[in-house]
Amino acid sequence: MIVTVTEIISIITVFQLLLFSLFLLTMKKKNEIGFRILSAFLFSNALFIINFLLHDLEDFFNINLFDFRFIGFSFGYLFGPLLYLYTKSFTKKEFALDKKDYLHLIPFVIYNVVMLFSYHLLESSEKIYLLQNSMVLPRWASNVIYFSLHLQILIYIFFAVSLLNNYRKELKKVFSSIEKLNLSWLMIILFGFIFMWVIDFIHFILLRTVNLSASIYNVMNFFSLSINFVFAFLIVYKGLKHPELFYELTEQAEKIKYEKSSLTKEESIEYLNRLQNYMRSEKPYLEPDLTINDLASKIHVSTKTLSQVINENLNQNFFDFVNSYRINKAKEMLSDLEKKTVLEVLYSVGFNSKSAFNSAFRRHTGLTPTEYKRRSKKEISPVFRG
Predict the structure, then answer these.
(1) 215, 334: one domain
(2) Can you give the CATH number for the domain in which 330 is found?
(3) Prediction pTM value
(4) pLDDT tens-digit map of 16-32
(5) pLDDT > 50? residue 381
(6) Which listed site, 53, 70, 320, 351, has its alpha carbon 20 to 30 Å from 16?
(7) Cα–Cα distance between 160 and 84 in angstroms, integer?
(8) What is the number of structural domains in the chain?
(9) 251 located within any domain
(10) What does the alpha-carbon distance between residue 367 and residue 386 come to, in Å, rounded to a whole number?
């Protein structure tokens, strides 16, 4: 038998996923339940790929593996739930699995029960006959299974992305800059898998609607597995090189609630004046990694009180409040006759990246920094210096 490049990539990918899933089980620090969920997610991906390698393995080793057919495929029904639960463990403080979380296993169990009676409980001769004649399940049932798998993954992707978006909003209540926070790990897992799923879904649609030649089918298989290979490689590389990326940030971004606050309107205004005076005189917003805890300690109020003062008086979260000062300072510098580049300005006023600066500047002014600088030079009258 000739081993193809696609098969080699598949085997390496499986090895990477299995290796790293075992490594995660050795992690004993924070978010241990999250490590176990991620380990199960990677392990499920490995078994799913192995399922499609069984026929080649039979030919290569001259053995019968028909008893193991369809088992690996069933783990595809765990992709969505495990991805969602891992995202939840990463973004929710003191996350723990409860009984209702096991309801996510229902599609996985249903599929295995169907295959148990349709295939696994049959005699070996019957299994071989059904496989050789593609009669294990009717075509409509096979289509329903594949469609339900992709639909389930789509639903869980939606909920996982929603969790991540809400988490980013919570971070902005605490941090003045979120570019350096360890969201990259979760982004690799989540969006890497989404990209893989989109490719596989297109593959599925084409197979069911278009008469593909064997060569095109092989190319699509190669492309799909290559993406899986890159996904597995990035997880292993990032995880081994930067293990700190695993640790959750939820302790820093715990929700702040005001319902039971005893803060009066007079006290709130007093704290607001104190805050604004400190921002003008000391310019703490120039510090890129300024947090609400830092600022609260400087003006001698609690973090919860400071958050409430900003939110209720200015209708802003901490992130937007600090950035408003940074943008006003940037406007002043961009309007100055001294020739400073946009890059020099953004670092001077406390931003960590050009993309974050451009986004914030446009949100506050309706212009890009370059457009604002160009327009200010054309003004004849003195420029407002925020």
Answers:
(1) no
(2) 1.10.10
(3) 0.65
(4) 889 888 888 876 655 57
(5) no
(6) 70
(7) 5
(8) 3
(9) no
(10) 15
